[in-house]
Amino acid sequence: MATNIQNYELMVIFTPILSEEDFKAAQKKFTSIITENGGELVHENPWGLRSLAYPIEKKTTGLYTVIEYKAPTDVNSKVEIQLNRDENVMRFLLTKLDKFAVEYNTRKRNK
User: Fold this and answer.
1) Closest CA to 78 of 110, 24, 44, 30
2) What are the chain's domains?
3) Is the pTM of the predicted complex or chain greater than 0.85?
4) Reported confidence tier of residue 1, pLDDT bands at 50, 70, 90
5) 6: Cβ contacts below 8 Å, ≥ 6 apart
6) What is the DSSP string of 74-98?
């Protein structure tokens, strides 16, 4: 069965009440799901605590992380199920990257 490898970017906003260790563990959980299902991490960028544009669950800040990866398309459904089940995740955005976005991210990282 040939699976289609695509580039993706996953931004996750975790609840701001996580400790540094819990934040790292939460990031590791999702990167592990990606790699265990045949995905390959390209770049991980934990932004840390940032203000939200609008309150979510009465919170005005959140712990952001951005994960860029390559994976077969069926990996995303597994990742999304876990994101929806995790009570520490306030919001997430999963984006498929086209070749221009991949080039842009690579250029941005290598500056």
Assistant:
1) 30
2) 5-109 (3.30.70.60)
3) yes
4) very low
5) 70, 71, 72, 73, 96, 97
6) THHHHHHHHHHH-TTEEEEEEEEE-
